[in-house]
Amino acid sequence: MKSLLQKIIRTVWKLTLLVGVFCVATAAGTLGYFEFRAPEKACVTCHEIREPAARWATSSHRDINCKTCHGGTLGAARENLTRLVSHVRDKDHDKMGLNEAQVIAMNTVCGSCHEQEYAQWKASGHGVTYSAIFLNEKHNATEQIAGDCLRCHGMFFRGNVRDVVEPLDTKGPWKLKNEAMANHPVVPCLACHEVHAAGHTAMAARDASAKPQTALAEPAAAGHGSLYCRREGKHLAVGDLPVPTIVDHGRQVQVSTDPRQRLCVQCHAPNALGEAGTGDDRTPRGVHEGLSCAACHAGHAADARASCTQCHPRLSNCGLDVTAMDTTFRSLQSAHNIHSVACADCHASGVPEKKKKGSN
């Protein structure tokens, strides 16, 4: 009887060992398959990946392996397991997308290649964090926090604004529901860029950008940008965004057709009536009407300090040094906002004629 029991135990151990070896070999084979096979032969074997993979194949990142952005083999295996669970649990299998934690992690990946752009973004107003936005006492006391805040600040957050900060009033004191979010960016790279968007590879884009550009010209890559729409849960190419209709006291303002302008105005937007200067609207009016945001604001830095000298005094009607003029360019306390200043704001008795060269 004892001998029979020992045989059974040995047999069970052998079967367990064989099953273990089989599982390890299968896992190793699977990991090796995804590690060494081309993405179109590995990742795309999951039918849910085919659509984003097809877009990647025509994108500016098509020469970059999936693992560079989405992690190595172990990370891919973890994501695949998560996707399998979601496939069984969820009814809607069409909404493939990164959650906010993955989007924030992608920022670092973006910075590993786009070092200059990443550094400029991080130092700019667009590199602002959850704590800086949602715990801003001056703003919160003036304007109550609302759900629409997440449309531009925290667009990848899965939840509503009540899950971000409390209380939702103008009295405070305010605190984040999850303190770990304090230093997370509210406008990450993917807010304005879709990695899988169609475009030229890095070398082709570099060749195009090498051509001389004027201050007011639209660069070859002007259409490279996408707005992430929180409501739709997907990116919208800037070329598909409409040119906004902005009015100034009933008069329709001339708005630049630069695709980048359409992207900016989605967040730097006027009220529901499209009235210039309301909300966070900064559509150029007055002497700058018709200019694109990008004519003055430099790329990811959004810095405009060096832009005025490109046009002034060379293209200025009055021929004065713009840095000495009484505008918000020189001082934020000025009553003359650089986005809307008009000649008549300073020349109340009438706008003088443009001086001719050589005249005193």
Short structural description:
The chain has helices at residues 2-36, 50-56, 66-70, 73-89, 100-113, 115-123, 130-134, 137-142, 202-209, 259-264, 308-311, 343-346; strands spanning 165-166, 175-176, 226-229, 234-237, 247-248, 251-252.
Shape designation: elongated
| Secondary structure tally: strands | 6
Largest β-sheet summary: 2 strands, antiparallel
Mean pLDDT: 81
Any low-confidence stretches, pLDDT <50, length ≥5? 212-223
Radius of gyration: 27 Å
Instruction: Please provide the ordered H/E string of secondary-structure elements.
Output: HHHHHHHHEEHEEEEHHH
| Helix vs. strand class | mainly alpha
In terms of DSSP E residues, the strand content is under 5%
Summed up, the helix count is 12
Whole-Å distance between the termini?
121 Å
Describe this structure as you would to a colleague:
The protein contains twelve helices and six strands. With 360 residues, it is mainly alpha-helical. It has a domain of 58 residues. The protein has a two-stranded antiparallel ribbon.
